[in-house]
Inverse folding.
């Protein structure tokens, strides 16, 4: 193994250590890994003007269709602008753009041990709410944006359409959507997740004979 190859490998491994390789969530490009609670991360080279650099949490995945919300596109509109919903008057939380479909449709992601009224279980302690009574109950129980985020619009597919996009290489699929729904820096979420996906791919492509030996072994 020449010095240039060693240098490149060290940079890859160093990035992995900085990100915490043991903490990397499972990631896939297989259609059988699609489902509610999974997160879609758009690949880097896409020319898609709608979904470029998007991170999408799937909240429904069934024969009736697939529904998701973009996690990383915040707006400059406060939650208090939803005046018709009780409990928003004093909320300065940011509204998020959930997707291009039915922009007037409101969806809330809620982290709670007890499901709000009309809630859809997504993953772990994460629920989605789309009814007014459910949203008002969630707002009443919520202590802030760390446990509730509200999205305008959503992303929608029929299953074969999304499966075709995955098969064409458009999306990386991550497990455990509840880990990303309330990310503290959503504006950089795509760049961090695409970096993790590419790191995992880079490590998988390194031939085992060229991998560095454990520390202390010569």
């Amino acid at each position: 193994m020449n010095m240039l190859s060693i240098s490149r490998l060290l940079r890859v491994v160093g990035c992995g250590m900085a990100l915490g390789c043991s903490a990397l969530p499972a990631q896939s490009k297989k259609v059988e890994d699609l489902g509610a609670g999974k997160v879609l991360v758009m690949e880097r080279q896409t020319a898609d003007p709608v979904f470029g650099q998007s991170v999408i949490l799937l909240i429904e995945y069934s024969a009736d269709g697939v529904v998701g919300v973009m996690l990383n596109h915040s707006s400059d509109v406060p939650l208090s602008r939803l005046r018709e919903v009780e409990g928003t008057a004093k909320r300065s939380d940011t509204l998020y753009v959930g997707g291009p479909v039915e922009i007037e449709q409101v969806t809330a992601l809620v982290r709670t041990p007890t499901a709000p009224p009309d809630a859809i279980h997504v993953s772990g302690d994460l629920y989605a709410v789309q009814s007014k009574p459910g949203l008002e109950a969630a707002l009443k129980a919520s202590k802030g944006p760390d446990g509730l985020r509200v999205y305008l619009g959503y992303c929608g597919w029929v299953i074969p359409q999304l499966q075709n996009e995955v098969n064409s290489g458009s999306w990386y699929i991550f497990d455990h959507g509840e880990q990303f729904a309330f990310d503290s820096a959503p504006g950089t979420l795509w760049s961090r997740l695409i970096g993790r996906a590419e790191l995992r791919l880079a490590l998988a492509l390194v031939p085992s004979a060229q991998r560095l030996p454990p520390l202390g072994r010569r």
